[in-house]
Each structure stands twice: as C-alpha cells, then as structure tokens.
Amino acid sequence: MSLATFWIEDLITTLPMLPGFTAGHARDWHELAYINHLSHKEVIDRRKDGHRPYVARIAGQAVGYGWLATSKVSIGELDINIELSSEDQYLWDFATLPSWQGRGIYPRLLQSILEQEIQNAKRFWIIHAPENLPSGAGMSKAGFEFVGQLSFTVDGKVGLAPYKDSTERARIGADLLQVRLIESVLAPCWNCGGVVTKHPEKVDADSCWPPKKSSKSVCCCVKEVKKSNNGIVALSSQSHRSSLKR
After folding, report:
1. CB 80 within 8 A of CB 178
2. Bridge-based pairing state of the strands 180-181 and 185-186
3. Of all helices (H) and strands (E), which one includes residue 25?
4. 10 Å Cβ neighbour count for 163?
5. Which of 140, 205, 225, 242 could form a disulfide with 212 if both were Cys (CB 3.0 to 4.6 A apart)?
6. Nearest 5°: CA angle at 155, between 149 and 159?
7. Dist CA 13 CA 15 (whole Å)
8. Helices 40-48 and 29-36: crossing angle, nearest 10°?
9. How far apart are CA 243 and CA 133, in angstroms?
C-alpha cells in the first residue's frame, strides 16, 4: 500500500475543464447513504467522528464521493487507529459511480477537496491500495506525491519504506501513522505478511497479493519461507514494489 501526501506549499496541478463538474460538501444524507452504500446511521456516525463527506456532480447529478477525516483515522487492513493533529487531514473511502468511471472524476474531486480545505490543514494524506489501479493514477493527476510503501515487515508489524527523494515526508507520514520507518526489508506479501511468520501453513493463494493464477497454488510467501533457514524470508523493498500492479 502506497502512502501519498499533498502539502500546503505544493502546487495543485492544472486539469482540463470537465463540463458540468462541481464538487462540495454532501448535504443530502439520504443521497450520500445511497451512493456510498451506507445506512443513514453510518453516515451520521461518521459525521460525529469528524469525517466530512464530499460529493462530485456532473450537471447536478451525483457521480462520485469521498470522505475527509479531520480527527480520527482507522485503517483496518493494517490495524492502525490514530488521532490526527490539527495540521493533518486524511482522505479515504472514495469511489466514482460505475457509469461515470474513466472520465477523470476522481482527481478533480481530490483537487476540489484540497481547494476547499487547504485553509484548515497543512498536510493531506491518502493511501493507495495495490489492487485499485485507477486510484494511483488519479492521485498523481491531482498532484499528490507518493512518499513510501506501507507493508507488513517480516516480524508481522507494519513499516513504511520511503521512496527515493521522499525520506523527510515519509518520516512525517510514519510518525503520523505511528509506524516505523524501514530501509529495505518487507514481507513478500503485503496482505499476509503478518501471518507468515506465525502460521505459514494457513497462507494460501486466496489470502495473498498479488493473487495466484490457481486457487490450488501455494502463496509465494510459503514457498520462500520454506527455503529460508529461520522460517522467514526478507525481500528488498524494490523487489516488493516491482511485484505490485500500481
């Protein structure tokens, strides 16, 4: 999972005009619940926790949505639960409705949020999941900088390996997420890394990323673990990143 950021001193990239596009705070909770596939109560609970919803529209029609965390962040895949400082905000749970995908809604929604929130924070953060290819492209188009790769380390904990020339921002991102910076050692699989060291026999093709072609094939993590002397294998961060789809 790649961590990306936008800082107040960064320049917002210029995107071509998209006729009819607007974006702003969600006002209709029922509409938001419907397009976000949430219950009305879930929407209200998120609002109570300091999350602000945004909706993208084309000619007034809702075509996408996203959430901005202002006080709390919870990343279930990595078991991260943190409180945000007044200088940081976190973007999460974005989607473009299927019939509107591929038209550049996502990067324009991101930029709209930055423009409307830039006076409220100094840094904005977002995570790019490896299985969602359009997400990473949209972040880059919007002007976000990818600063590091989040992954389980070989001891089952979470670490952040900085990308080249992004060490300082990665350090601040690691402090924000309360994870440690790691230089080069990442588990072979970001999804099952926490399982391999304790229960490698439970790791299979369905629990790992990248996915195996056959459900009967054994995860590459298990194959590598069996070849190692101490039951654990460490790949370099470059090798790990080259296996990601993004």
Report:
1. yes
2. unpaired
3. strand 21-25
4. 19
5. 205
6. 25
7. 6
8. 110
9. 13
Q: Which amino acid is at 173?
A: G
In this structure, the chain runs to a length of 246
What is the spatial distance between Cα 116 and Cα 137, in angstroms, rounded to a whole number?
A: 22
* Residue 71 per-residue DSSP state: S
DSSP states of 151-170 = EE-TTS-EEEEEPTT-HHHH
Q: Which residues of the chain have pLDDT under 50?
A: 185, 193-203, 205, 210, 212-218, 220, 222-246
Q: What predicted TM-score, i.e. pTM, was given to this entire model?
A: 0.77
Domains of the chain plus CATH, in order, are: 2-143 (3.40.630.30), 185-242 (no CATH)
CA distance 132 to 24: 24
Single out the residue of 62, 61, 58 nearest to residue 19, CA to CA: 58
CB neighbourhood size of 212 (10 A): 15
What is the number of other CB atoms lying within 10 angstroms of the CB of residue 170? 21
**pLDDT digits over 67-112, tens only?**
999 999 998 878 899 999 999 999 999 999 999 999 999 999 999 9
